[in-house]
Automatic annotation (TrEMBL):
InterPro entries for this protein: EmrB-like (IPR004638), MFS (IPR011701), MFS_dom (IPR020846), MFS_trans_sf (IPR036259)
Membrane-spanning residues: 17-37, 57-77, 84-108, 114-135, 147-167, 173-192, 204-223, 235-251, 271-297, 303-325, 337-356, 362-388, 409-427, 439-460
PROSITE patterns associated with the record: MFS
Coiled-coil features, chain-numbered ranges: none
Keyword Transcription regulation: no
Domain of life assignment: Bacteria
Cellular localisation: Cell membrane
Name assigned to this protein: EmrB/QacA subfamily drug resistance transporter
Membrane topology label: Multi-pass membrane protein
Chief location of this protein within or outside the cell: membrane
Lineage: Bacteria, Bacillati, Bacillota, Bacilli, Bacillales
SUPFAM superfamilies per the UniProt record, alphabetical: MFS general substrate transporter (SSF103473)
Alphabetical UniProt keywords: Cell membrane, Membrane, Transmembrane, Transmembrane helix, Transport
């Protein structure tokens, strides 16, 4: 990753549209890649002669490596140029995709997934950082709205596209479809990407990287496997203990270093802390739709995988299309009332899923979930943008890395928590509705958490003027 000496560009001196297209395309393929593999796992298992536990590692390793890379990204952004880092991340992702496409056995396929995840873990926070640096405060909501569209749209089409491809072509076609998009994006970005991040050349602290890897990696692995293995299994307990110990060591070390890898001082800003916590809760609630509803529809109501995906599709598409709109509303009115309104909708619709039964219809699930996604669209990106807006420019890389890391942890916790609640509260002796009781309880837990987030959202302030930013810069810096 060579140091590109091209000067950092002021935000007013270049056309942002081509740059936005390059960044959004990179983020799109990174997220699409993460959602494609689930539907194809049975075909991969059959072709490579794998059992379910082994094949699931193709999903788990991606999230694990991705979660380990994200906290380190703030350091990489300060160490290398925008162009150098983005081109390296996309090259790594392209290399991993090519390896997966050509993989002849499980080991090679796993190696490709690791390379893909390492690249994707850099791309997402780097993209958010660039957007915040090239757009003034009053336009960041719209920019983040476009980013939110990508986050919603890629997972919406991923399972459907994957299902169609593996039905008509070999499973390797998933990677052959992605590879040309990555290569085109890589070539175009080489010519149009500008250096917008400032290099401070922090020293590499090996202990911090080691503590971060073991800390976040241990927690993510523990939470990810708890849903299947149970909270009391040895592997889960040991992983969580190791993760917690090393995370505490990592945080304590960062607070002592002059140039930490991940700056925990961002949490000195109350609004950033508040919006990050709200974002984590909303992300956990969103997992309810992504994980619990398909299980409920397929295992308890007898719908096919395609039908369960079809029920979730309108909500994901609406969320995608609403993100640019809520971004513009944020620029005009701020985050508070968007968040309050969105969380009111999300809380109400989540509690509507606490009375499911074997008579629940496809239409009910589709309509209620679609309205839930509207609520999430009103909260997720506006709250994130409001929090990051409070940080001075030199802390934005740390803010985006922290935000993405917390979201990754929330996703792992949410999956494990809701699946465990569903399983532990099922009552098989009472028939199908007794089993569905576990689903209802899991949505009650999700609804309770969103109610807490709704109360928290009342404390969001719409202070975004330069005076507030200067005060924050003095206070945090």
């Amino acid at each position: 990753m060579g140091i590109d000496q091209e000067a950092v560009q002021p935000r007013e001196t270049f056309n942002k549209v081509p740059l936005m297209i390059v960044l959004i395309s990179g983020a799109f393929v990174a997220i699409l890649n993460q959602t494609l593999l689930g539907t194809a796992l049975p075909h991969i298992m059959q072709d490579l002669h794998l059992d379910a536990n082994t094949a699931q590692w193709l999903q788990s390793i991606f999230m694990l490596v991705n979660g380990i890379m994200i906290p380190i990204t703030a350091f990489l952004i300060e160490r290398f140029t925008t162009r150098g880092l983005f081109l390296t991340a996309m090259s790594l992702f392209a290399f991993g995709t090519a390896v997966c496409a050509a993989a002849s056995n499980f080991g090679i396929l796993m190696a490709g997934r690791v390379a893909q995840a390492a690249g994707a873990g850099i791309i997402m926070p780097l993209m958010q950082t660039i957007l915040f640096l090239i757009f003034p405060v009053e336009k960041r909501g719209s920019a983040m709205g476009m980013f939110g569209l990508v986050i919603a749209f890629a997972p919406a089409i991923g399972p459907t596209l994957s299902g169609w491809l593996v039905e008509h072509f070999p499973w390797r076609s998933l990677f052959y479809v992605i590879l040309p998009i990555v290569m085109i994006d890589l070539i175009v970005s080489y010519f149009i990407l500008k250096n917008v991040t400032k290099q401070t050349f922090p020293q590499i602290d090996i202990l911090s990287i080691l503590f971060s890897t073991l800390g976040f990696g241990g927690l993510l692995y523990g939470f990810s496997t708890a849903g299947n293995s149970g909270w009391t299994s040895d592997s889960v307990i040991i992983s969580l203990i190791i993760g917690a110990i090393f995370l505490v060591w990592f945080i304590r070390r960062q607070l002592k270093l002059d140039h930490p890898i991940l700056e925990f001082k961002v949490f000195k800003d109350k609004l950033f802390t508040l919006t990050t916590a709200i974002g984590m809760i909303v992300f956990i609630a969103m997992i309810g739709s992504a994980i619990i509803l398909p299980l409920f529809m397929q295992n308890m109501l007898g719908f096919s995988a395609f039908e369960s995906g079809l029920a979730l599709l309108p909500g994901a598409l609406l969320m995608g299309f609403m993100n640019p709109i809520t971004g513009r509303l944020f620029d005009k009115y701020g985050a508070k009332w968007l968040a309050v309104g969105g969380l009111t909708i999300l809380t109400a619709t989540t509690f509507m899923f606490t009375n499911l039964s074997n008579a629940t219809t496809f239409t009910f699930i589709t309509v209620v979930n679609t309205v839930r996604m509207l609520g999430i669209a009103m909260v997720m990106m506006p709250a994130t943008t409001a929090g990051l807006n409070q940080l001075p420019d030199h802390l934005i890389p740390h803010g985006t890395a922290m935000n993405n890391t917390m979201r990754q942890v929330a996703g792992a916790i949410g999956t494990a928590l809701l699946v465990t609640v569903m399983s532990s509260h099922a009552l098989p002796e009472k028939g199908i509705n007794g089993i569905i009781h576990g689903v209802n309880v899991s949505f009650f837990v999700a609804g309770t958490s969103t109610l807490i987030a709704l109360i928290m959202s009342l404390f969001i302030k719409n202070a975004q003027d330069e005076g507030v930013k200067m005060i924050n810069e003095k206070r945090i810096g």
